[in-house]
Amino acid sequence: MGDSRHEVPRRSALPQRGPEAEFWSLYPDAPLPRPARDVLPNVLPLTAIQRCPPITTASSLGWVLTPMLSFAVRWSGDSLDLAYIDEETDEVGAWSPILGDGPRHPRLHEVMDIKDTSRRASAEQIALDQMPLIDPSPFGDPREFQYLSGIVGVTAPGWAMLVRSVPNWPRSAGDFEIVEGVVETAWSGSVLPVMVRLRTEGAVVRFARNAPLAVIHPVAVASYAKENAPVRASGAGIDAWSDEAWDRFVRARLHRATSRSSYRALQADHYREGPPSEQRE
Question: What pLDDT, on the 0 to 100 scale, is given for residue 109?
Answer without folding.
Answer: 54
